[in-house]
Design goal:
alpha+beta, Immunoglobulin-like, Elastase, domain 1, Neutral Protease, domain 2, 5 domains, 5-stranded mixed β-sheet, 8 helices, 40 strands
Length: 701
């Protein structure tokens, strides 16, 4: 019996001029007239090939070898007449004699019949061959032995989107032993159920790769018959079903992500089998991470649905891919901040590709959407809240390299519109293999992508234009439009910060409310609050025509009110607030305490004392305090406005006691607004604070 892993949609690269061959090897003979055309041995014109084993028996393989070649029309004298297949060792050397040949009538049509794999072999070596001889170099194709001999049914998803494997989705390939034990391992992927425990070895050092330990962390298993069904790990409560089965979803998505990686890499994603661990750490853990040996997925209970979605699974596997195919190995080298941005961007793009292979759609740009939690919008430069709007805003992200992901993913989005997803991804993969060092900067990464586009016969100008959109300059002479905006509630001061090697002489502002200006640094007052798309077009007539003009857009949220503290259910509750000995008469359903002025103008000292409803929190708590120093209605738009940022570990009391000295802060003798928030999350934002865990004050110092 043959059971097949998840199939990929048909591979097509016609726009590159490649030929993709997927037929059957068979016997035949050459004609004498054709032989007369062959004058020398063939060159190896296989540009890409991959193989996914379709035979579910251990130590056997079968299936199609997908081959791409260059156009041979002008090379008849050295054309191949057959592809000869050899086994290869771990170093890529031939092992034994040729064991499979294709017919001249279908040279690049190669299908492997059911064949036993020799011991210690996990690669093929393909050689184009003709009557004169064999190509000097073969094409190495690595593979893993697929052993998924049973097809599993069961539930997946969550209450928002539920499915059954075997009905709405294909069944899942797992392994069934002769004694009736089913194992979540198909030779390509394995899934371990951590039962909300964690691997302590994994937390000894963030700089050291974890080690595989199949004895300590075996794949999930259960007793089964010939038609296995698994529904053993759902998480639900009075609110609803948070996940029907993270184990099922991880096995399904992991296999699909594996197959996607093989298609584009031409080889398995990792040197080892891909090992996934679900229900990692406590129920509230919302992390998903690759530790050098395993990909680990928390349940994110009560925050959002399981972290086991297709794009997140593919994202984490891709960290292992990039660490293997490039110098950007997270655990072997110290990476520059930009190298880490590149890592995250490549992983996000890999998630897009996995969703593309699964859905057939090229419109899958919201990373993390299926989990109904934090997302990144990859078809925008600003992928998330506080992300930079351009490379010229680089410093706004400070040390948070995630906030620069869009400087790599948005150009990919534009290039995918120009070339298609498959070719754009291929260029990024080749850039990773060729010219992304550990010290890479974002402009260097972009230059490398431009170089690899040229090697692939694609437009380098398309790359220049794509990165120009994020203000990464891949040209010598030209202008880049840019501006900054300082908000004071409804009034905004705009400043032209465009870059040019000569001089900008023309400016045109569109404030997004029907008003325009041709000044260099205008001031504008909006008549009402709202979100406005502001653009600046500049001209430097001394530049080459193609780069003499440029425009830049920035989205501004204009308000004369502070963002409200939301009314979602809080995990914890503040029960008492005392500021400089003043009892604020705190109630959990109230957040605005600005009517009571806290005056510390004498000694500039502010003592914050907050008590909560528990002496043992379930999760770590991050306390943050912001003070709107410039009185512009925005908390935290400047680094100095964040006065407190500290985290208490889980199992500690929910409380904050802190003495602040305000004497060094700029002061125009008018009271300013302060927001205090204590929530579960290291990325607590003033505009995502929760009622019961946050409050506003008015301070004079």
């Amino acid at each position: 019996m043959k059971l097949f892993p998840l199939t990929l949609k048909n591979f097509s690269n016609a726009s590159l001029g490649f030929i993709c061959c997927l037929l059957v090897a068979c016997g035949g003979s050459d004609s004498s007239s054709a032989k007369d055309l062959i004058l020398k041995e063939p060159s190896n014109q296989i540009t890409h090939a991959y193989f996914l084993d379709q035979d579910a028996m251990a130590d056997k393989i079968s299936g199609k070898v997908v081959i791409q070649i260059t156009d041979l029309s002008d090379n008849e004298a050295s054309q191949a007449e057959s592809i000869w297949a050899y086994w290869a060792d771990s170093e890529g050397n031939k092992v034994g004699d040729v064991w499979l040949k294709t017919d001249k009538a279908s040279i690049y049509d190669l299908q492997i019949p059911a064949t036993t794999i020799p011991e210690n072999i996990s690669a093929l070596l393909l050689y184009p061959t003709n009557s004169v001889g064999q190509a000097n170099k073969g094409k190495l194709i690595k593979f893993r032995d697929f052993t998924g001999n049973a097809l599993l049914s069961g539930l997946g998803g969550n209450e928002k989107n539920r499915w059954e494997y075997g009905l709405q989705r294909p069944k899942i390939a797992i392994k069934r032993l002769s004694d009736g034990l089913c194992i979540f391992d198909n030779g390509l992927i394995s899934v371990t159920n951590m039962h909300n425990n964690k691997d302590m070895n994994n937390h000894l050092s963030a700089l050291t790769a974890n080690q595989i330990d199949d004895k300590a962390f075996p794949a999930e298993s259960f007793l089964c018959d010939e038609h296995p069904v698994y529904n053993n790990d759902s998480i639900s409560d009075d609110v609803g079903v948070w996940t029907y089965s993270a184990v099922n979803d991880a096995m399904f998505y992991g296999t699909l992500a594996y197959n996607t990686a093989v298609k584009y890499l031409g080889e398995p994603p990792w040197d080892e089998k891909v090992r996934l661990r679900v229900h990692y750490n406590h129920l509230y853990d919302d992390n998903a991470f690759w530790d050098g040996a395993y990909v680990n997925f928390g349940d994110a209970y009560y925050q959002f649905y399981s972290t086991v979605s297709l794009d997140i699974v593919a994202h984490e596997i891709a960290h292992g891919v990039l660490s293997r195919i490039s110098p950007l190995n997270i655990f072997q080298s110290e990476l520059s901040p930009d190298a880490r941005t590149v890592h995250e961007a490549f992983a996000d793009i890999s998630g897009v590709m996995a969703k593309y292979e699964f859905t057939g759609s090229n419109d899958n740009w919201i990373h993390g959407e299926a989990s109904h939690g934090p997302t990144r919008q990859l078809n925008q430069i600003q992928t998330e809240v506080n992300a930079v709007a351009s490379y010229l805003d680089y410093d706004d992200a400070q040390s948070n390299y995630y906030l620069r992901i869009g400087l790599i993913t948005y150009p990919f989005y534009l290039l995918s519109k120009e070339w298609g997803l498959e070719q754009a991804y291929g260029v990024y993969i080749n850039a990773a293999k060729s010219c992304w060092p550990t010290t890479v900067t974002l402009p260097q990464a972009a230059q490398c992508i431009k170089q690899q586009a040229g090697h692939a016969g694609l437009s380098q100008q398309a790359v220049v234009n794509a990165f120009k959109s994020v203000k990464i300059k891949l040209f010598e002479e030209g202008v880049l439009s840019h501006f900054s905006a300082e908000q004071f509630k409804l009034r905004v001061e705009f400043k032209d910060t465009s870059q040019t090697s000569h001089q900008v002489t023309q400016w045109h502002w569109d404030f997004g409310d029907g008003q325009v200006s041709d000044q260099q640094n205008p001031e504008h007052t909006y008549t009402q609050a709202g979100t406005y798309q502001v653009s600046l077009s500049v001209t430097d007539p001394s530049q080459p025509q193609a780069y003499a003009q440029d425009s830049f857009q920035r989205t501004l949220t204009i308000s004369d009110q502070y963002c409200a503290i939301n009314s979602m259910p809080a995990d914890n509750q503040i029960t008492a607030v005392t500021i400089n000995g003043i009892d604020m008469d705190y109630f959990a359903n109230e957040s605005d305490y600005t009517n009571t002025l806290v005056d510390v103008s004498e000694d500039k000292s502010l003592l914050i004392d907050i008590k909560g409803d528990t002496n043992s929190t379930l999760t770590a708590i991050t306390w943050k305090v912001w003070l709107d120093l410039n009185d512009n209605g925005i908390f935290g738009d400047h680094p100095e406005e964040l006065l407190i940022n500290e985290t208490t570990e889980a199992s500690q009391p929910y409380q904050l006691s802190k003495l602040l000295n305000l004497s060094s802060l700029a002061n125009d003798q008018t009271p300013k607004y302060m927001r205090i928030s204590g929530e579960y999350s290291a990325i607590t934002s003033p505009c995502f604070s929760t009622l019961g865990e946050a409050l506003d004050l008015r301070i004079n110092w």
